[in-house]
Automatic annotation (TrEMBL), chain A:
Keywords: Methyltransferase, Transferase. GO terms for molecular function: tRNA methyltransferase activity. SUPFAM superfamilies: Clavaminate synthase-like, S-adenosyl-L-methionine-dependent methyltransferases. One of its GO terms (biological process) is tRNA modification. Coiled coil: none annotated. Residues 934-947 have a biased composition (Polar residues). Residues 761-891 form the Fe2OG dioxygenase domain. The keyword Methyltransferase applies. Residues 1-34, 60-97, 119-146, 363-384, 397-417, 470-500, 929-957 are annotated as: Disordered. This is Fe2OG dioxygenase domain-containing protein.
TrEMBL record, chain B:
Pfam families: Trm112p. InterPro entries: Trm112, Trm112-like. It comes from the Eukaryota. Belongs to the TRM112 family. This is tRNA methyltransferase 112 homolog.
Amino acid sequence: MLHDDDQDDDDDDDDDDDDDGGGGGGIMNGAIVDGRSTSCPCRDVIRIERTVLRNLRRMLTTGGTSSSSSSSTAASPSREGRREDGETVGGGGVGGARARVAGLRPYDILSATVVLSSPSSPSSFPVVKDDDGDDDAMGNGGGGRVMDERVVRGMTMIPNEAMGDASSSSSSYAMGKIRITTSTPHAARIVASRLRRLGCTPGYLFRGAVHVVHGEAKANDDDCDCDCIDDYGAIEGGEGGREGGSEGWRCPYGCGGRYSGRAIQVTQVAPAAIAAGGEGVGNVRTTMRDEYGGIARWARASPPKFRRLQLTTGNNGTSCVMATVVELERRRSETRFLYVENVLSSVTREESARIVIRRDGVGGISNVDEDDDEDDDDYGNDGSTASMRSGLLAIFRGTWSSPPPPSSGEDGRNDGGCYDCHDEISMKMIEDDVRHAFQDALRDAISSAMCPRDDDFSNSGDDIRVELFMKPNDAGKPGKGTKGGKKGPSSNDNNCIDRSPPGVYDRLHIGMMNNRDATMLLRKWQGKRISLSVKLPPSFVDRYRSGGGMESFYADIVTSALFIDYVDVLLPKRRHRGVVPRCRRHDDPPIAFRGTGGGGGEPSRPECTSVTDHVLIPGLILIHDYASEDEERVLMAALSGPHAPWAPAQTTPSGGAIKRRVQHYGYVFDYASADVLRRDEGGVYHRGCNDEGVTIDPSSACPPMPSIGPSRQLVSEMSDCDVEGYIERAVRDVRGWDALAGIIERTRRFEFAVPSSCHPHINQLTVNEYIPGQGIGSHIDTVTAFDDGILIITLNGGIVMEFRKVINDNSSSKTNYANDQNSRKYNSDEIPIKNFQERKLVYLPPRSLMLLSGDARYKWEHMIVSRTTDTVEGAVLLRKLRVSLTLRTALSLQGGKEVRHTSNVPLPHYESCVFPPQWGQLSDAAAAANTNTPENNGKINPTTTPRPYSPADNRSDLVTPETERKHVHTVYDAIAKQWNHTRGKRGVLWPGATQFLENLPKGSVVADVGCGDGKYFTAIAAASSYVIGTDISEPLLKMAAAVTGEADAMVNGPQYQRLSKEKRTLSLRPAVAVADCIHLPLRSQSFDAAICVAVMHHLSTVGRRIRCLAELCRIVKVGGLINVQAWALEQEDDSKRKFHGTDVLVPFNAQPKYLLTSTMESDSEHLKIYTAAVDTPPLGKGVAQIVAEQYSGAEFDSKKNLVIFQRYCHMYRRGELEQLCGQVPGLRILESSYEKGNHVVLLRVT
Amino acid sequence: MRLLTHNFLRSNVKGTENGYPLIIEVTTVRCEESPVDKEFLLGLIPKVDYSALRSAVRHMGPHCDPPLPDLPEVLPSAVGDVPSLDDATISILHRVLFDVYLVEGYLVCPDTGRKFPVKDGIPNMILHEDEI
């Protein structure tokens, strides 16, 4: 389980040996990839790229932190020597700030990309093959088995996978160029000049990646002076250049903006000598394009924390090359990022940090366990190690603000007038050096962990591209002003750095090339500590040591137990930004990766080896697919909808709050006493065995159990078929409450194999909502409160439940259960320390039903670990929101005593078939009247329960409430122009809605209800559909009409001159009408589809929302689709909006220049006022003020000269839209999702 | 407002039974020629209420230049969903549906006589509170 980087050193040794065999010229005439066979050429390419990158870094950087300090000779020692002499700028001490500024550090070279080029003519390049796949047995005879060879002749490769055997010989292609990407133009300059000086050839860089074959074309040596390096610095990535301190974005390398975020396409070291036989070498181009039109670029990821390399392909290559290019692109774009938190928190937070400094050759890597001791001073031979250690700690803790001066007293070093600047910058660079040294070490550790030697090669991690980024912990205080730091001494004067502590380094991203590797890494390292041996960069060492001895120093660092969040792994490749599938089915295929076995040691968290069927817990029965998907969807809509009766927050006896949301039906479960609250005839609640009645807040009176019939009597007379039919109807009509009742009734009737379960008397339901990451402590359900036979239905998201068998002295007989006070306490988050004999993990898939009875009920505690992923048979599953229904039988108390469970009597059913239930809705008296007497069991006083909503009975819903008039209609009327200018014209469309429109059949007629300024008209027209848009705001519609060309005046306005051609052609299609979405003036059943985007959240009553949905349903044909989108209460973390309630006023800052025109046009009455205002200078101010006074809801911001309007918005909770849709007959929810802060439902009219 | 749009609008004043088709009172009409998209048109025809279109053409026709011809009483037999039309009919239908705009005027509810104003080509179908 521990990793170090020794292995990597070995790798390098091997590489160098190979080089030695290859002859000194450094030129490859023909080369063959390592004989190890792989199935895909891309893997070779990527492997070569990695090696090239490593070689580059080693070659070009002085005092690099690369771990390859092996002394085996590089291929051309003389050149190395030349570099050492000639390239060190200034020639001064290595520690000098100038030298470091001008120098190149390993991480300045970001990537090396092999660019595939045209097929070379086979004749000129003898195919070299390796018959037995061994390193040593190489011949350069042509022909032979082509199948498994990556034959490279100057990197001429023969792919064999897609092409098949027959065509392989003719489909060779060449890797023509290497594109080196550096972090800054400056670095590019250095790279270019050094490569030129070295007379570097690609073959030189390839060493280690390919075996160099003794070749005949030695003449090519002459081609290798790269004197045509001419330019550099094409800059890609328009997002770059922002200050590191600006919101949202930071340099992925944690440089605080110093690199200004740009990957600069610099050098293309063309192995033309190889690929084209002496065509000249070393073009350095600014172009990003390769000859097939493919474009390689760094792309920002979203969230913008890191970058990934993207290769866009052109379209004129040969199919063979294209296939490979496409495959490469696929692999690159597949990079999956693991987000690791607290990687160094053991270093940064604990007092006794796990860092040991040792000298080269002294000591070894301490085998650190999770609980080892620290003895820092073992290796500290002198004081410098101690100070280095503290310096290192300070760096990681972000407190490295005042390092000790260099111990050697060279005063002349900083003779300039800006000592501080130089020092700050060099400090910053040292910090970077250290950080990157750490990253390199970790990267090497990862790659060696992922690619164990002697492992099956096809499973090896050769195609891993690991990119590590550390991120300052404190997002609020990024390092400021460091932007110019790399540019050299000349620019430093302006860049004295404000060194506010950048925060703690303890986060990082690890980019893996594919899901499989990411999964593997996760499995291996989840919850583990890693011991790293970091070679300290010389720059850092020089800070603390004088004399510049040649010794190397290593820091042995033990990370914290890694908690790797599996961010991006399970999600499919995103097509639309921000679309996160939510209420989808769970049967998205999990990662189908089976590990090769625990090579990495014991995982800290046991995997779920048992998929339930194989678990032998007596009394546990798990039934898969107990509920159908349709049922699940309807239940979810009801249980997580807005009317779901979530219980008031409760606390545990230990004082902790129950974090997850719960609902109780039938009887309240009181967490403080871990018991159900029982009512007596007088409506007094009783808690536990104490006979005293406790006063309970009446609001905690919970809703009754849902029932499918008016009384238990009648229900029990129903046949099973009746029940099933009832469920079917309820699901079809999306009546969640009824479906829930049906499922409960079905559960009561379910026949388990175990006869002892007494679940038919179920009278209590607890709904738990587990957000990913939430769990529940180990517990046994209160014995005195509930009978044997507990049923748990899992909805929406599967979860692994852990069972532990309790060893108790004499827990053999059931009579002791009641005395087991322990069992009553830990319905909390604490796990009592006990001895557990056995531990079993059971995966509860969604829609499953689990029965706990007998031993499983009484002898095994169960719990859910708080985490966001579960490992099930080697596959890692991302947890989703899980809603569990726990169905239990609450017991009554007899004679004021707790009785043995054998003689307990279930409490009477407390049920209702009326929707919806509410907390505190029934008064105690009514509740008492309705419950405990069996005679009137289930008969609820109708006056106390609200009836289901019926659109017809509420005329007041049709009238626009004052809130909407004031805070919606008038606001949009007033701000129409600005709205159009700042929102609509930019055309930021929700991808989900656009996709929806694209998927419609051509020629559809679409109603855009609440179309505003016609934002989606373009998309609709592009999809060859005809749109009719309605909106309540006439000014907005005028904008829309202007777009469509129906209003002459607007069309000729200057802002519409720039309309795209596409939009101009729109004048063929759309149409608008002023109308209220509550009351659409559209023919019934006449539209093929409808969209209603960002409208529903402006409706202020439930009735109006439903009414709006009903109108949508009315105008769309049967079978047609409706897409409804509304603002979500649950905003994304990085959203600038945070809503603290469901009904809020959202300000809109209106600028007077827009107000003037838009309002003038719409209202001639106001025109005079505004004209008067215009006449009164200053122009803008007068308008803004007058407008603000005009609108009762608006305020005037005199400082900014703005009118602040308040828009009413209702933020929809998760599931609320679905719940509303469920109340409109004829609407069927096909899909619901969350997109960029909005809830989206896709409906079908039935 | 095109006649195609008109075809989908109806009145929903309190007391209307059907509210369709709306009678057109013309003040200003605009004609703009546009290229014929036959495929698109044929796809639309089945979704159009033909009798409503005919009546709209009768209201609008005299105000156009040249006047709109009367549409045939029924469209030629439909094959499947897509009517088989000759080119002449198609160009007439295209003109009627796409090229003729009501710029100013009124849409009148056939049941109640409520007039919905059309201004700048945008019909205002908003109801007063007492009409809901």
